Amino acid sequence: MTVVTLGAHIVDVLARPVEGIPAGQDTVVVDQVKVTAAGAAAGTAVSLARLGNRVVSLGAIGDDDLGTLLAALLTREGVDVSGLVRRTDEQTSASILPIRPDGGRPSFHVPGANLTFGAAMVDPGLLAAADAVHIGGPDVAFGLNDPAFFGALEAARAAGTVVTMDLLSNLPDLVAATAAFLPHVDHFLPNEEQALAMTGAADPVQAARELLDQGPSSVLVTLGEHGSLVASADGVERLPALPVEVVDTTGCGDAYCAGFITGLLHGRPLGEAARWGTAAAATVAQGLGTAAGLDGLDAALALLDA
């Protein structure tokens, strides 16, 4: 199956475990430092590729060393990067993530070229030819909020393409603006904080129902250690998280999206596809960074049997 991911592309530099920032010029020795392709589009692309999908990723990166590194990391995973636009006026988006012993991940972040990605950089024919399109981080790719892009999504959906979407930030003003995408999306996958910020709802179930009324056929809200919930016309189903030892939560949301999309493309019903997402996320939580430990679909699904 072919999936097009488009939106946020980020280079992550991760270190663990980090309990605090040292004073002055002190040095703290850590167990691991890792560089990964990340962001709601690029991170999902890597997980999708590791789950056996053909992936084309579209976005804007800088014409700099970080951009070259990011393209190389994606290419090594088998992701087609011919749709990445190199920008001379912006650096490649990047984050430094000091991972706490409990898996938490504060971030030092440069938005960079992601802010310049827009509808004019997307080939509508590529979307229509794909089995699925995943919009990752439209809250930071402002140029996608464009009638031309929405028209391309509608044409792709009419051709049979499944359209999914998740967000990058938790900033209320940014996530609120993504409501314009919801009538053009089949499945929306925010986390709890994003869902509450978009709706002002008191709890994630109410938030999912309100988001469902805005157009998607399903809304899947990830709840961290509490699993996720799946809302559709058939009602709301809660799915527990799998009991694994958490090393780092970076990339878990991307892996959930990738597992869910893979399940849909394998013809699985909504709830089962969401469980595929749960398994992929649980696999990644046990390692450091994007798609950590994700070594094929069968290995991820074995967690469900266990």
String of helices and strands: EEEHEHEEEHEHEHEHHEEEHHH
Report the C-alpha radius of gyration, rounded.
Answer: 18 Å
Largest sheet: 9 strands, mixed
* Biggest sheet: strand arrangement: 5-4-1-8-9-10-11-12-13
How much strand? Answer: 15-25%
Q: Give the distance, in angstroms, between the N- and C-terminal Cα atoms.
A: 27 Å
Helix proportion = 25-40%
Report the CATH topology name: UDP-N-acetylmuramoyl-L-alanine:D-glutamate ligase
> Low-confidence parts lasting 5 or more residues at pLDDT below 50?
none
Number of domains: 1
Give the CATH H-level superfamily: Ribokinase
The CATH C-level name is Alpha Beta
Count the strands?
A: 13
Average per-residue pLDDT, rounded, comes to 96
- The CATH architecture would be 3-Layer(aba) Sandwich
InterPro entries: PfkB_dom (IPR011611), Ribo/fructo_kinase (IPR002139), Ribokinase-like (IPR029056)
GO molecular function: kinase activity
Protein name: Carbohydrate kinase family protein
Domain Carbohydrate kinase PfkB: 4-293
What does this structure look like?
With 306 residues, this protein is α/β, with parallel strands linked by helices. It has one domain: Ribokinase (UDP-N-acetylmuramoyl-L-alanine:D-glutamate ligase), CATH 3.40.1190.20. The chain contains ten helices and 13 strands. The strands form two sheets. It has a nine-stranded mixed β-sheet with strand order 5-4-1-8-9-10-11-12-13, sandwiched between helices. A four-stranded mixed β-sheet has the order 3-2-6-7. Keywords: Kinase, Transferase. This is Carbohydrate kinase family protein. It comes from Actinomadura parmotrematis. InterPro entries: PfkB_dom (IPR011611), Ribo/fructo_kinase (IPR002139), Ribokinase-like (IPR029056).
